[in-house]
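During the reporting period the student researcher (J.K.) took over the structure-prediction task from the postdoctoral fellow and processed the backlog of single-chain submissions. One of the processed entries is reproduced below for the supervisory committee.
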Amino acid sequence: MAKSSELNWVDTVGAVDTLVAAIGAAPLLAIDTEFIREKTYYPQLCLIQIATDEVTACVDCLAPLDLTPLFTRLFDPRSTWVLHSARQDLEVIWQRTQRLPPRLIDTQVAAALAGFPPQVGLEGLLARTLAIELGESYARTDWSRRPLPDAAFRYALDDVRYLLPAWRHVEAQLGALGRLSWLEEDSRRLLAEPPVAEPLAIWIRLKGVYGLPARGQCAALALVRWREAAAQRADRPRRWLLADETLLALAANPPSTQAELGRFLPAKFAARFGSELLAALAARSDPEIEALVHEHGSPQAPDKARLKALQENVRQRAAALGIEPEILATRRDLAALELGAPPEHLRNGWRALALQDVAVTSPASE
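J.K. obtained the following structure tokens:
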């Protein structure tokens, strides 16, 4: 297998075997993926890019290959994956394998803990750590196209080619700051989160849902559950099936007949899915849904003055640490803290220690 300075396209059984051998026992694996999902519910994995200190390769996931040997190596318990902004990559890998890496380093998270902007992109990270400019972006490329244009191919490889050197630069900064344990904690938390959003999480993020009465919130949750299942069956984006605005309108004034559905939906759609939608709306009275809404719905609003003071305290603490305030705690985190129900990551771990005095001296606790 060629050295990392050369480009490697892996689309044959022999090439897969050669790549696995070349990876060898390397403990750190730079990983990235390219996929398409504009017209589907499930992301279609097109490429997996892999780099070690010895090899850089691009695996064609659309070729008729058995990738079992490669995945066996990637998921070796001794391996640590290094990714940048890992969440979507973890989702697409999970959809393909139903597995997550044994250990993870997200360089975007790591950089933020070292004082970089919270959502620093790969280009920004490489520019600041290695003085490397990637050039033109091909992020909107159709990654299912074959043959893949050379420029897009090189762009895909560049996503992993420099990732390990950049990580080592950030690692040194975190080590000097005594924050490697912070990254270990945040990495474990990222791997513990569901790789695919669950209906309850989608419902919580639904803009405007908390403006509905309790019955309407129950109806919205029932509709979100139906929409997820239907979108998965059809393998179509959830909002293609039922837009958020329409879902909320149905939840606010639940129709009880097929004819009433026509006030909200095109006739063809209502004819096809009407009975399912009515059944979903009827499920708003299910005890399980009511219990979930009671637990997660219509959260109490925090006191604005106390929340503002708490945010200022956190801003000052973050400034002293040289990181952005949202890395310590988001506004939602602080609202929950002010109400006396902080999330787990503010009750235990490095954030709890960093905010200990802040929480004790905040107006909410006086």
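The committee noted the following: Strands lie at 9-10, 28-36, 44-51, 56-60, 80-83, 104-106.
J.K. will present the remaining backlog at the next meeting.
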